[in-house]
Each structure stands twice: as structure tokens, then as C-alpha cells.
Design goal:
74% of the residues lie in helices and 2% in strands. By secondary structure, the protein is mostly helical. It has one domain: MetI-like fold (Orthogonal Bundle), CATH 1.10.3720. A two-stranded antiparallel ribbon has the order 1-2. A hairpin with a 5-residue loop joins strand 1 and strand 2. The longest helix has 41 residues.
Length: 296
């Protein structure tokens, strides 16, 4: 057996230590604030789990969490099927591949704050193309005063910005499928739906898992775009957990509750990502177990 060469780890170790320190030090600061209270002059007093209990029992936190979960659920329900459909429709060879890949990559190059500014202007009734066009068509559209319009604007904006990521990931999985699978399906007379269900979907399952995890984490932590477009309004209709956390920490300067809320926020993301990963990989594990049992 060939001995493993672990010398490469010495090249990566400085980067790993740097990333670990840059993550651990802020995390420990947040943990410190979450279990203590300060009355000024850099004097801290131990309060234990008081801030955690306050956040978990807060209706404000519950409402923001529900809004965030609803937004992430809608984003996944729209972008994942749409991304798969666009990837299936893209050409597999020729100059059209380069054109489609460039067009898909363009929205991903735009910074988050610029995306928010674009859609803030785009949706304005007085000068925005979307807002003015809808107003001219007799549609009462105003994302600053109407809750449905605000949510619709944020959803469309996120779909426009991030569906390309799902498309590129799914397309990379599709082009990696050997041609022999399609030839066998053609010989068997398989329908288009059968090819997608039994060949394409299983083969892109792992890249699809990456797409789901990335889009869930990004949408669950979204801050810049809704803050720029709606500022959390109208009222608190688009005040997601991220916006509520910033308002608590920066606007109200409640560092203890904000630190506790950020840790709860972090744990919720970890838990839900673990659930997504477990559910989406359980079928593969069961299939591999059954295959090994049959070989035995």
C-alpha cells in the first residue's frame, strides 16, 4: 500500500489557523456578551441564560423567524425547480453553451447592495420601469406601502439574482452524465420524463444538495437586499431575523439580547442545514446499503 504524503497539510495549515482564529475570536466575544450584562465603564455582570430566555419568549423573535422561514421556503420552492428547468433547456454543445453560461453568470457578479439599489429604483412608481409600467397598466403597485407588493418584489429580486447559481450547478451535473445512459434510454424507448426521473435527477442529486444548502443559507441570512429595498417595511412585513438582529444590536444597542439572538440564529441555520443534508442523503445511503446487501 502506498504511504500517504501529509506534507501538503503544512502548506494549508497557516490558512486554516488564520480562518479558525478569525472565526473563533468573534464567536467567543458574542458568547461572552450573551451571558453577561454591562452597565457601562466596561463592567460586566453574569446573567446566565437570561438573555436566551428573553429572546426565545419574545413574540418579536417568533414573528421574524416565521417571516424568514417563509421567505426561504418560497425561495427554494421557486428557484430549485426553475434552475433545473433552465439547466435542462440549455444547449450541451456549440457556441450557445458559452453564451448561456455568460448570461447565467452575469447576475451573480453584481454586489448585493447594488442589486438592492437596482430593484429599489426599478420598482419606483415615478421613475422605475417596473413600477411605472404597472401603474400605467392600471395596477396599484407600491412596495413601500403594500405588504404583498413588498414580498413579491423581494422574491422576484432574489429569483433574478440567485437562480443562476442553481442553473450553473445543475448544468455542471447534467453535462457530466455519460452519453451511454441516454443511448440506453433511447434504445429502451424511455420517455422524456423517464429520462429525467431515472437518469438525470439521480445523477445531479449531489450538486442539487449543494444548491439547496447554499440557497437556503443565503436566503435565511439575507439582509442587504431587503434592507435597501424596503428597510424591513411596510411596518415589519419584511423584517427578517437578520434585519431584526441588526436593529437590536446597532439601533437599540441591546448587546446582550442581540448576542443571544445571534447564537440562536446560528444554531437554527446549523440545525436546518443538517436536516436538509440528512434527508437528501438518506435515500442514497439506503440504496448503497441495499446494493451492498445484494452483493453479499
Amino acid at each position: 500500500m502506498k504511504a500517504m504524503n501529509n506534507k501538503a497539510w503544512f502548506m494549508v495549515l497557516p490558512v486554516l489557523l488564520l480562518v479558525a482564529l478569525s472565526a473563533i475570536i468573534p464567536l467567543m466575544t458574542v458568547v461572552n456578551y450573551s451571558v453577561q450584562d454591562s452597565f457601562g465603564n466596561n463592567e460586566f455582570f453574569w446573567v446566565g441564560t437570561e438573555w436566551f430566555q428573553e429572546v426565545l419568549n419574545s413574540e418579536r423573535f417568533h414573528n421574524a423567524l416565521l417571516r424568514t422561514l417563509l421567505f426561504s421556503g418560497l425561495i427554494l420552492a421557486i428557484e430549485i425547480p426553475l434552475g433545473i428547468a433552465i439547466a435542462l433547456a440549455m444547449p450541451k454543445r456549440g457556441i450557445g453553451v458559452s453564451v448561456c453560461l455568460v448570461l447565467m453568470a452575469l447576475p451573480l457578479l453584481i454586489p448585493w447592495n447594488v442589486v438592492g439599489t437596482i430593484w429599489q429604483v426599478f420598482g419606483r412608481v415615478d421613475i422605475g420601469l417596473l413600477g411605472h409600467g404597472l401603474a400605467s397598466a392600471g395596477i396599484d403597485y407600491n412596495y413601500t406601502q403594500n405588504t404583498f407588493d413588498a414580498w413579491a418584489t423581494l422574491l422576484i429580486m432574489d429569483v433574478w439574482h440567485w437562480t443562476s447559481l442553481v442553473v450553473l450547478l445543475c448544468y455542471s451535473g447534467l453535462v457530466a452524465i455519460p452519453e451511454v445512459y441516454y443511448q440506453a434510454a433511447q434504445i429502451d424507448g424511455a420517455s422524456r420524463w423517464a429520462v429525467f426521473r431515472y437518469i438525470q435527477l439521480p445523477k445531479i442529486k449531489r450538486v442539487l444538495l449543494i444548491a439547496v444548502l447554499l440557497r437556503f443559507m443565503d436566503s435565511f441570512m439575507i439582509y442587504t437586499e431587503p434592507f435597501v429595498v424596503t428597510g424591513g417595511g411596510p411596518g415589519n412585513a419584511t423584517t427578517f431575523l437578520s434585519i431584526d438582529l441588526v436593529q437590536m444590536a446597532v439601533g437599540q444597542f441591546d448587546l446582550g439580547p442581540a448576542a443571544a439572538m445571534s447564537l440562536i440564529y446560528f444554531l437554527i441555520i446549523l440545525l436546518l442545514c443538517w436536516v436538509f443534508y440528512t434527508v437528501m442523503t438518506s435515500q442514497d445511503n439506503a440504496a448503497n446499503g441495499g446494493r451492498q446487501g445484494g452483493e453479499g
